[in-house]
Amino acid sequence: MTVLSNRLSYTFDLRGPSVTVDTACSSSLVATHLGYEAIVHGGASLAIVGGVNVMLSPATTVAMCKGQFLAPDGRSKTFDASADGYGRGEGAGVVVLKPLESAIRDGDRIYAVLRATGVNQDGRTQGMPLPNEDAQRELCAAVLAKSGLRPEDIRYVEAHGTGTRAGDPVEVRALASVYGRDRNAPLVIGSVKTNIGHLEAAAGVVGLIKAVLTLHHREIFPIRALERPNPDIPFEALNVRVATESSPLSGSDVQHVAVNAFGYGGTNAHAILSEWRDPSLAGAGPREGSARRGTRLVPVSAACTESLKARAAALAFAIAAEPDAWLDFGYALARRRAHLEERAVLLCDSAAELETELEALAAGRSSERQIVGRAPRERRLLWVFTGMGPQWWAMGQELYRDEPVFRAVVDRIDAVFREAAGWSILEEMLRDQKESRMTSNAVAQPANFVIQAGLIELLRAHGVPAHGYLGHSVGEVAAAYASGCVSLEDATRLAYHRSRIVQTRAGKGTMLAVGMAPEAVSELLRDGEDVAIGAYNSARSVTLSGARPALERVAAELAQRGVFHRFVPVEVAYHSPHMDGLQADFETALAWLRPQAPNAPLYSTAYGCRVESALHDARYWWDNARHPVLLSHALDLALEDGYSAFLEIGPHPVLAASIREQCEAHRKEGKTFFCLKRKEPEARTLARAVAELHVSGVALDWSRQYPEGSLRRLPRYPFQRKRHWTESRGAAQMRLGAKDEPSFFSEHEPGPTPRFVADLGRPAFAYLADHRIQGVPICPGATYVEAALQASTELDPERAEHVLRDLRFERTLLLPEHDALSLSVTVRPDDGAFTIHARTAEGSWEQHARGVRAVEARYRTPEPLAIDRLLAEHAEAVSVPDLYARLAEIGLEYGPRFRKLAAVNVARLGERSGSRILARLAPPELLGIPARVEPSLLDAAFQALLASAGDLTAPVVPVEIGRLRYFAGRTEPVWAVGSVALEADGSLRGDLSLADETGRVVLELKGVVCRPLDQRGSNVRAETWVCEEAWLASEPRPRTPTADEEWLLVGSAASFSDRLARELVRLGARAFKKLRPTRPVLKPDSRLFFKKKKK
Predict the structure, then answer these.
(1) Which residue in the list 939, 979, 991, 1010 is annotated as catalytic?
(2) Catalytically annotated residue among 5, 25, 76, 191
(3) pLDDT tens digit string along 650-678?
């Protein structure tokens, strides 16, 4: 309990005082006093005050019953003659305290004003739990004096009112002595404990909340069922009345109430509150200039689809009631609500449109003005500036006409451009289609920069962040400006000079986009031909640059092969030898350029590197025009740095396919977006892009779209009211006093990063000892797979298909003979990445495997396997006993419980293509733990892959799996079907499917890699082995080696090993081997296995 407040500070990253208060029943009102004092004296600008009471164990109730604190019937009968103790209640309450002027300035919804607080102590009484009337009276009088009010100003007091024989009379007398005198109407008192029970530590804040709502609604809420007033309390004589029915707080004056709370240890707390009335907040419309003009983006979000629909329906109803305040609703949704995973953004121009779109969203109807998506994590966004090719005659005209931000940037550029060039780029861009010269390089290059520079500022005005920048070819000019390397004026001059210089090569060449890998394209090019690779766009895409006749020849050959290709609408062969001879022109024209280092991550496509210094001088821009564009190289670096969202900035998207291909090559998920699209409304397209970024997880700065707004009361969040009980097995067993069903995991640690722990020392896991390598019991990789699948199904038991990606078995896990061994699976909720660790009883956790739980993956369900046809195709039968004997020779020693191959058949496909295998699996032993896929069966499938591997010389084990799909609810696998091929490095690579008797696939594995153990590098920690030097008596060896001895020499000292080799030969050794390593043979943590060679 002592760190409850600290946990909140940790969760919300709060840096101010964090204090947990325990004064029993007055705790949360004492905490309110501390928060109030901290704000008044300048120690805090905001205080979160709360209390909670949860009855987790009956032990407390039993103890309090023995102490005669509780009512036998479990009900608090405050102020009643039958009062005989209190009834316990559960709940929580939290209030936020803030300086009044700050709350007004920030547009907060103010419920009441906390006018004064105080705390004191009973001191010595007849018994610690017994109240002190004098102390209570003194506290009430002190707080009243502090508030500056008169006794008659207090209309209502929320009493502590526990319903005890001793407490109630003392409290009423103390209140009456301060507030009951000199008033015309009786003082009204009540206690919420009659309604919801006594919340103990939370009682004070619950009473405070009731008092606040009394002021807010101007109505006194009655206590529950006062049957006969307590005869020990002379209510009429004290001028006090109990609130037995609802009554209004009438009158035009500001109303005031008080709150009382006492702890059974003697700590008393009291507070006085005043009504808050501010006409400027009630009914106010949107403030002047509260947001940007034009189409508005209104975000709505929830934790699940059902709640999103319900929230949309409630919002539609609220906006229908207050249509003039629709912008204020947008402000509140954008800036005063958390943006949850299920998201929608509605593009609206009026309250009517917003209401219509909300109703459509609630009904599940799609719309052009509705962008819906899911954002499981926050994405890093890379701004990608296009090069030449996407330009068209009307680009930017709508934005220039309708968007003041865009127009201001373009006007500024045009003024600089006119001075440098002597003509107006703006005039060229505003021409109609008939008069447009946009096909000319001299116009298109600077026009592209104008569009991109305007979009930079427009995106910033929309609150779109840029976590990094990348430019393709001439797009690097805009990237340099956006990242602060050059000013807008310098970038404008740079764009002009670059286009002017390369224009001298206009009409002599062009460019061709090709959908082929660079290596394959190179085979098409002829020596001496005027064609070069001008851009490396992705692993499967390049752009060729050169003379048109040569490119037309290449295009014809590509057409015959059915390969994608498209001529880029340019008149210059950029990034090719056509640029030779222009270096001096670049260096002369740009000698004035003084670049700066970027102020954000910047990726160069001229050099394929990250830019961290002032690199963009005249030489850089020559290299930018002459050398090939290294887009794929720059994207590789960006993907390494964690970018998963890519916004294409230019007049039309042209790079999305290349970006996606590069993401696929790295097996990374990436989303592409574009600002504008040819012939589509520009403002609406841009607005959709901003909305798509938000629903995909890019964090927008909503203050740019909604700088101001008045707060409106939004509908409450529509929780789904589903059971959400996160109790560990250990806690459940303790609570219920009984063991639950057997499970793979013995512990489940819920939380932001859930962890599952299995005790491999349990008898159910004893069978793992039958999995041995070189005589040592080793945990099979199949157990890691089972652990990951068990964790995945625990997290989502309703899911029918579970997908794991990029599994890596990193470290061998030795199974100790006597020591305890635990295996843990930890899953990150944001990206599904999981790690598997193990430790012995006295050891520390060490990582042994990792992978990714792909929650969002959706793949086509595999067709059932045609077992009869497969049996006919796999004609070559493999002797299972012989197979196990061969595996034992190389150190793979399987005991009875891991010999699950009943039959193996092989189909040879050729030396390069490898083999296919079909294996029937024997049923596993009953282990007492429900398995997803029994590890001995999956390991048997791995064993079957080795059946066609030829002569193996070392133990071969699985080390990685590209993708694994498990289909829950299906019967145990009986068949294993797979393909396997031998790689050049000696590893085996293949796919596997495990199916039930009918052929339905239970488990599908793609990209299984097995490697010889001695090629994996050692993965056994040296400190897990304890060695001591032991001297043993031994007979001297004969001087002459026997003829069947084979000697292995290991060493890097050539002269010594040569002398030793010659001496062995002289002594009669029949054969020897000599190894001279260029690096240490054994790593510090290596383990070397020796096995006698059989003749």
Answers:
(1) 939
(2) 25
(3) 999 999 999 999 999 888 999 999 999 99
Min mean pLDDT across 680-684, 839-843, 1023-1027 is at 1023-1027
| Strand (E) or helix (H) holding 110 | none
**SS (HEC) of 33-53:** HHHHHHHHCCCCCCEEEEEEE
473 is catalytic: yes
**Enclosing H/E stretch for 958:** strand 956-967
339 is catalytic: no
116 lies in the same domain as 176 = yes
Q: Are the beta carbons of 518 and 536 closer than 8 angstroms?
A: yes
- DSSP reduced 3-state for 724: coil
φ and ψ of 921, to 5 deg: -100, 140
Catalytic (active site) residue 160: yes
Does 466 lie in the same domain as 534? yes
Distance CA 308, CA 1045 (A): 78
Domain end call among 651, 670, 698: 698
**Strand pairing category for 240-242 and 187-190:** parallel
Which one is catalytic: 274, 473, 822, 936?
A: 473
Catalytic residue among 5, 28, 140, 160: 160
Which tens digits make up the pLDDT trace of 410-463? 999 999 999 999 999 999 999 999 999 998 989 999 999 999 999 999 999 999
Residues in a beta bridge with 645 = 381, 671
Q: Name the token pair of 626.
A: 């002459």
Whole-angstrom CA distances from 186 to 81, 154, 225, 270, 867 are: 20, 11, 20, 20, 90
How open is the CA angle 205-209-212, to the nearest 5 degrees? Answer: 135
DSSP label of 860: P
User: Of 33, 80, 198, 802, which one is the catalytic site residue?
Assistant: 198
Asked whether residue 980 falls in the same domain as residue 886, the answer is: yes
Instruction: Determine how many CB atoms are found less than 10 A away from the CB of residue 717.
Output: 14
| Catalytic (active site) residue 538 | no
Candidates 495, 480, 363, 345; CA nearest to 417 is 495
Task: Give bridge partners of residue 801 from the DSSP assignment.
Answer: 967
Residue whose tokens read 């966004």: 381
Q: Is the pLDDT of residue 283 over 50?
A: no
Check whether residue 91 and residue 195 sit in a common domain: yes
pLDDT digits (tens, 9 = 90+) for 713-733: 899 999 998 887 776 655 666
**What sign for the dihedral angle of Cα 11, 14, 20, 26?**
negative
What single-letter amino acid sits at 766? A
Please report, for residues 836, 1005, 1073, the alpha-carbon distance to residue 782 in angstroms, rounded to integers and kept in the order given. Answer: 13, 12, 37
348 labelled catalytic? no
Domain assignment present for residue 734? The answer is: no
* Domain span holding position 564: 381-698
Active site residue 724: no
DSSP 973: P
Report CA dihedral (314, 315, 317, 322) to the nearest 10 degrees.
150
Sheet strands (E) in 570-722: 602-604, 609-611, 643-649, 671-674
Of 378, 411, 428, the residue at which a domain comes to its end is 378
In a domain, 48, yes or no: yes
The secondary structure of 999-1031 as a DSSP string is --EEEEEEEEEEEEGGGS---S-GGG-------
Are 942 and 936 contacting, i.e. CB atoms less than 8 angstroms apart?
no
- Say which residues have a Cβ less than 8 Å from residue 15's Cβ, sequence separation at least 6: 9
Token pair of 896 as six digits: 């009875």
Cα 873 from Cα 875, distance rounded (Å): 6
State residue 755 phi and psi, 5-degree precision. Answer: -135, 140
Q: Are 944 and 1082 found together in one domain?
A: no
Q: How far apart are CA 845 and CA 838, in angstroms?
A: 5
